[in-house]
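Comment thread on ticket #2218

A.B. wrote:
> Attaching the input chain for the structure job we discussed in standup.
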Amino acid sequence: MARINGGVALAKSMRALGVREVFTLHGGHLDAFLVACADEDIRLTDTRHEASAGHAAEAYARATGQIGVCVITAGPGFANALTAMVDAWVDAMPVLFIAGSPPLREVATNPLQGGFDQVAMAAPVTKWSHRVTNVERIPDLVDKAVRTALSGRPGPVFLEVPIDIMFAPLAADAMVLPTRPSLATKPAPAPEAVEAILTLLAEASRPAVIVGGGALSRRCSALLSAFAELTGVPVLASSKANGAMPAGHRLNAGPAGTLGAAARGAKQPADLVILIGARAGLFLGGRGGVIIPDDAKLVQIDIDGAEIGRLRAPDIAVTADSAEALAALIAAAKGRAWPDRDAWVSLLKQLREAGAAPFKDAPKETRPGLIHPFHAARAVAEALSPETAIAYDGGEAPAWFQPFGRSPGPGLYIGNGYLGALGVGQGYAIGLARARPDKPVAIIMGDGAAGFHIAEFDTMARHRLPILTVIFNNASWGMSQHGQELVFGKQNLAVVTLARSAYHTVAEGFGCWAEQITRFEDIAPAVRRAQAQAGPSCLNIMTDPEVAHPATAMMIGRLDAEDEIAIPYYENIPLSP
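C.D. wrote:
> Ran it. Output below, let me know if you need it in another format.
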């Protein structure tokens, strides 16, 4: 009787569920699986750090809408990937994390890379965490893991496969492989909810749709454009939903923060906000009531009922899939007369353009050899190929780039999420490159973020990935430095300065094409040269650390308030009366 082992069973189970890409880093616990992948036509992309493998799986999932898979070794391999696991959890990314572990028979013997409970550690940050204890169970448990990750509110899952299960024999004809369902339905809104939403929309003078990460599927993107065109409502996006609507669409009003400018600057706040797959919180202005005015009507559509009403009770709450909700709204909205909203849309687009150019008259080079970050970011964005997927990583560096960056599609412009983790950029870029073979990818990052996983230049070079890494090098942790300056004064800085390091030389050492840029006029030609390379590249752009992005001051809060203590990133601390 033909026999296989647990690693082969795992590879075959993944193949049966449509997995073709796995992100990993070698460990002996995994060998039975790793060597089986070639026969199942599963490509292995091995990184230099387990966190990067996890972040790559996240990006792959976001870009494709399919399960991302990260397979790491026991103990330190698992611990290294925990940051990516948490990142996937808070950003609702469907990733299957699989880790090896010491043999079951050696529990509590102080074995190599053991001594703690990986399953228990993963449980709080996954939808499901489980230990495989019988080789026969591998197919059905992998099936359950994948279905759990993709169903409802997406999220990561974790399977531990001990080494004695991974290497254990199994009769080949006894294994029943999982199958993908022929029809998978998602929850849709009730007809009365659809009618109520359309009634509010017809009555509103300044309505707006805000989309979030729950609206990133290709189907949802197409429906979103159709709904906007049918009703004339402008669409804005949280940073989680870059690319949900084509950048050049006439009803794309840009980032959600534009509504804040309409309320404060133009004194024309939105009177109806429809959230579609967008979570209330940090990326939508928190409890400030600026992006979503306190007196505006609020509709909240989310597949996760727990997200509805997080900061305020909506006027209409719908627990449904974003695409299904849009399809229902479109069907019910056809044939109706909708108000002319051109003036409102025009105002938002004007505010969006004004917000992108506060430094347009600033000198392009502030000092010899140092470029103004506003102009550097704009030059990079304008020179990139329109097909370029974007991964961003850092504090102020991505903030300079955001007004100019354009996404080639849903899920192809991603970066730091709710976890606020730096060091995600290289992994994200690797995942984006695997999701879109032979299409260009760019990482936009600060020099602080660049140092976390700098050895991933090796991963990019070994796998010949067309990734351009653009580093805005201001020799500092920019947002941290400027925040300290605001709160404590320039004379009281602590651990926020860096060396003006030769990252381009590091990239060259790992096999990438690279240049250092010290003049503004050299940026665009260098970007084009870099993207013409067959493999990875790096541009180390020298920028001025004295120039602070306005977002940093906005994140500090009121510094002149006598009854509050200003703190970075959160609401100020009120003093007791």
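A.B. wrote:
> Thanks. Noting for the ticket: Residues 122 and 129 are 6 Å apart (CA to CA).
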